[in-house]
Amino acid sequence: MATTQEQARRPEVHRQTPYGIFLAVMTVFALINSAVLAVNWLYPFVSDLQIQMVDILLWIDLFFVTLFLADWLHSLARAESRMRYLFGQRPFRSLPYGTIEFFGCLPFSFFFRFLRLARLRRIGWGWADLTPRSLYRAVLESRAESAVLITAIVTFLVIALGSIAILYFELDQPFSTIDNAEDAFWWAIVTITTVGYGDAVPFTLEGRVVGVITMIVGIGIFGVVAGSLAGALTYGRDKRAASRADTAAIVDEVAQLREEIRELREALGVKPLER
User: Fold this and answer.
1) Burial 181-190 (b: 16+ CB within 10 A, else e)
2) Widest CA span of the chain, in angstroms?
3) What pLDDT digit, counting tens, does each position of 163-201 carry?
4) Could you give the CA distance from residue 273 to residue 107 in angstroms, rounded to a whole number?
5) Which residues fall within 8 angstroms of residue 34, CB to CB, at 6 or more apart?
6) Gyration radius from the chain CA atoms
7) According to a count of CB atoms within 10 Å of the terminal CB, is the N or C end of the chain lower?
8) For the range 217-225, what are the long-range contacts, defined as Cβ-Cβ under 8 Å and sequence gap of 24 or more?
9) Which helix (H) or strand (E) holds 213?
């Protein structure tokens, strides 16, 4: 178990929170995405389908860049010492994880992308004492936040995998309106949000199956979000009501104790306490 001094020397971490879980999952996805892009860099894909798939992965990487850069700015703003966050606890003697994470946000090279491994180390510090019970408690105490972040992960996966699948089945098909990565992403987003403009539609049987799955997931996602928010509001209201009831019970109990003490002092012939 980490000591208090060790924890004080560590940079800002997300300790066993729903957002910490979300960040760890997205970091793993980003590293997998970077690994696939690295394979394409070492052994370039040549077919039109493979090239379009790489474009989808680059769009996904841009999403990770935006997410990680926003988290880096948030961590920098909350750091007790920005200089220590950027340059390490002891400059030139300890690793500057803040600076490493910043370069890991940049999409300019594969070396920068794999610097995102540093994020797992920082998140791992906050999870050193993680147990299933503490994880369950953290999720239960923030049910609305947990539901929203889980929904965000599911939404990301459905959009990413749905765009890849629809492009795989629809590319170069007769009468197809989905011809590139941008079309595939657009179709996945408007389908999961159940908007359905109709400008990009699947024509193959496999593509329509992907569309049905995406629409069903989209309907479920918005239902979960609405239910979670309503449940969070109800939970907060019930918790405040229970707190007021507990306070009133304590006040009544204190009043009864005071009355018993007064009667006991009178029985013993002791003068009452002056207020």
Assistant:
1) bebbbbbbbb
2) 103
3) 999 998 988 888 888 888 888 989 999 998 878 777 888
4) 74
5) 61, 110, 113, 114, 116
6) 27
7) C
8) 217/154, 217/158, 217/192, 218/158, 218/191, 218/192, 218/193, 218/194, 219/194, 221/151, 221/154, 221/155, 221/158, 221/192, 222/194, 224/147, 224/151, 225/147, 225/148, 225/151
9) helix 205-268
pTM exceeding the 0.70 threshold for the entire prediction? no
- Indicate the SS3 state at residue 144: helix
Secondary structure letter of residue 142 according to DSSP: T
- Report whether 114 contacts 34 (CB < 8 A): yes
Place 249 in a pLDDT band, splitting at 50, 70 and 90: confident
Retrieve residue 258's tokens.
């005071």
Structure tokens at 153: 């992960």
Q: Which two tokens stand for residue 39?
A: 């394979």
- How many whole angstroms from its chain centre is CA 268? 65
The dihedral built from the CA positions of residue 162, 164, 168 and 173, taken in this order, carries a sign that is positive
Amino acid at 144: A
- Nearest Cα residue to 16 out of 30, 34, 2: 2
- Cβ count near 251 (within 10 Å): 10
